[in-house]
Design a protein that fits this description.
eight-stranded mixed β-sheet, 28% helix, binds iron/sulfur cluster, four-stranded antiparallel β-sheet, alpha+beta, 2 domains
Length: 358
């Protein structure tokens, strides 16, 4: 049976404090001009904004994480033979993330298709993903940069979440969506929420009514590929780009990383850190050759990946959750929506060659 609870706004911090006894709890808070997800601190205000500057991506996929500790040793019988003994450093403990928005949490379902793939499961991601519970806040009022409803989602989409929290008069209606979610809703601070369910439902309907009509993106995978070789298209789209990487770093569905080994003497650590495909160095090969030498090539890859190559191999799912962060945060106003719509509307000149493969 569906489990629905009600939490008074005044009890939110106490509830998170209770959860923090057994879990690492993350919640949004102000840091300078930004709102970030950070370990919950009852002394600090929880920033209920929409959406946070940074998504809660790092709670499952840290900006930088230790993967392996290793030690070199030399074979005393043959000093040119070096042996390496390594030990994985797997994440431990459970976590609760309060206050991500539906687009933020849906981003992890795009990671899942890659990092939890049967033949290439990423054990570090898997450990955090399985041990993290998401209490997602339904959106009441989408921003002008939000376009979750263009990409098969919406302001109350609970895909990937364990509890959906909806702001109602005086508090939150909390609906459990998974076993993990139900286990969180046992506190005596929570009241039976059955009588408040209608209020939550009305809030969901109101949010949906505020959305503008969405364009049809079903043709995007093919159309984006069709302009693949039309470099003028990408040069124009990328003309102002500064290659700063804000779009990729802030994106809840961007999952590229880099690996570095740090060694001191015979001991070392393998570290994984977020990487950014908009950087000129991202595809630089050891020979000095760079298959994506210009920012036009790199923007083409970013848009192509999200709206064409990824859906092509993942049941048509677009690898963008429409959070709008890349639009809001781009210092030169690059708008991924415009690029995709222009690609869909693009009419090739007569005789212009069409790309039929990546
Ligand atoms: S945020 Fe804007 S300027 Fe920065 S890399 Fe992305 S598109 Fe370019
Ligand atoms: S591409 Fe932009 S709008 Fe889409 S999920 Fe990433 S940051 Fe959000």
């Amino acid at each position: 049976m569906e489990l629905v609870k009600y939490l008074k706004s005044a009890d939110l911090k106490s509830w998170l404090q209770e959860l923090a006894r057994e879990n690492r709890v993350f919640a949004p808070r102000n840091e300078g001009d930004s709102v970030i997800f950070a370990p919950f601190d009852p002394e600090q205000e929880i920033a209920i904004v929409h959406p946070a500057t940074l998504p809660p991506k790092k709670t499952v996929f840290p900006q930088s994480e230790k993967l392996v500790d290793f030690t070199y040793s030399k074979d005393p019988e043959n000093l040119s033979r070096i042996m390496i003994d390594g030990k994985e450093v797997l994440p431990e403990g459970t976590a609760v993330v309060f206050g991500g928005r539906p687009c933020d949490v849906r981003g992890f379902t795009m990671f899942d298709r890659v990092y939890l793939a049967e033949k290439s499961t990423d054990i570090y991601y898997q450990a955090r993903r399985e041990n993290t519970t998401f209490i997602t806040l339904a959106c009441e009022k989408p921003e002008t940069t939000c376009f979750c409803h263009w990409v098969d989602s919406g302001p109350t989409d609970a895909t990937g979440s364990d509890v959906l929290a909806t702001v109602v008069d005086g508090g939150y209606v909390l609906e459990a969506l998974s076993d993990k979610g139900s286990k969180l809703l046992t506190s005596t601070l929570l009241e039976n929420g059955e009588s408040r369910k209608d209020e939550a439902r009305k809030a969901h309907e109101k949010a949906a009514e505020l959305l503008q009509d969405a364009p049809d993106l079903s043709g995007a995978p093919k159309k984006v590929l069709q302009v693949f070789d039309t470099m003028e298209f990408w040069e124009e789209a990328a003309a102002k780009c500064l290659s700063c990487g804000a779009c990729a770093y802030l994106c809840p569905s961007c999952y590229c990383f880099n690996i570095t080994d740090e060694t001191i003497g015979m001991k070392g650590t393998r570290i994984r850190s977020w990487d950014n495909c908009m950087s000129a160095q991202f595809t630089m090969e050891a020979s000095g050759h760079n298959p994506r030498p210009t920012k036009a090539h790199r923007l083409r890859n970013r848009v192509g990946h999200k709206f064409s190559y990824y859906p092509d191999i993942h049941d048509g799912v677009i690898s963008c959750c429409g959070c709008g962060r890349c639009i809001k945060s781009c210092p030169v106003g690059t708008d991924i929506r415009e690029i995709v719509l222009q690609a869909i509307e693009y009419e090739p000149a007569v005789g212009e060659e069409q790309a039929d493969e990546q």
